[in-house]
Design goal:
This protein is of the alpha+beta class and 240 residues long. It has one domain. Helix content is 15%, strand content 20%. It starts with a helix and ends in a 24-residue tail after the last strand.
Length: 240
């Protein structure tokens, strides 16, 4: 009889070991850091969690965050004695370059001439192009403006680049019909803290789709610069 028990116990041990290995592997996956940009330790800025999803999701119109710091995407107006002609913007505010590239943990993005990531807004439209972010919204999400609609293009199909006329008469660059924006919550090149803000703002890929490689939980928008003197204050009442 002892021999019979020995025969039963030997195959059980390897199976238990397999389960232990699988369990350890799952634990290691859970322990992996979230998909916040490299070097960012405050996971609260990214919803404390990430939900993996396809990197390229077809554009779907219609879905709904900074402080008083200098906007990294839109420089201060150039000093001049004469204002820019109606419908035009000062040269210092013009987006002169769009580059399709990749950044850590997010993947495919579109950056401006300063290396800041661009976004699209679900409340806008792509066919026809329509920009709905104005007023305080545009202070948080500065539109990528242009006078001639001809920025230097790299890593993007030039046929996808266009313009849309904004409420104030200025022209905004579009990618596959979607108006392009920066986010003043991004303090340095390559950051993408605007991802999934209010469930309406998303990093845009070089083909115009939403980049959902890293999708933090929906975060609240932040107050416009004029409404807050404190860095990182949340503007709970803002819907954009």
């Amino acid at each position: 009889m002892p021999g019979d028990f020995d025969q039963l116990e030997e195959p059980v041990v390897p199976e238990k070991r397999k389960l232990m290995v699988v369990g350890a592997a799952l634990a290691a996956l859970v322990a992996l850091p979230g998909c916040a940009p490299s070097g960012v330790n405050n996971s609260a800025d990214y919803g404390n969690a990430a939900e993996p999803a396809a990197a390229d999701v077809a554009a779907t119109p219609g879905a709904a965050a900074t402080d008083g710091a200098v906007d990294p995407n839109v420089a201060a107006p150039a000093s001049t004695d004469e204002p820019a002609p109606a419908g035009e913007v000062a040269a210092a505010k013009v987006t002169t370059k769009l580059t399709g590239t990749t950044v850590a943990k997010m993947g495919k993005v579109v950056e401006n001439q300063k290396g800041f990531v661009s976004y699209r807004f679900d409340a806008d439209g792509d066919n026809p192009s329509k920009s709905t972010c104005n007023g305080d919204c545009a202070k948080i999400w500065p539109p990528l403006l242009t006078n001639d609609g001809k920025p230097t293009i790299k890593g993007i199909d030039s046929s996808l680049i266009g313009t849309v006329t904004r409420e104030d008469g200025t022209k905004q660059l579009t990618l596959k019909g979607w108006p392009l924006y920066g986010y003043i919550g991004d303090k340095k090149a390559g950051e993408w803290k605007g991802q999934n803000v209010n469930g309406k703002w998303f990093v845009i890929t070089p083909t115009g789709t939403k980049n959902l490689t890293c999708l933090p939980k929906i975060s609240k928008p932040v107050a416009p610069p004029a409404a807050s003197d404190s860095a990182g204050d949340s503007g709970d009442d803002y819907s954009y």
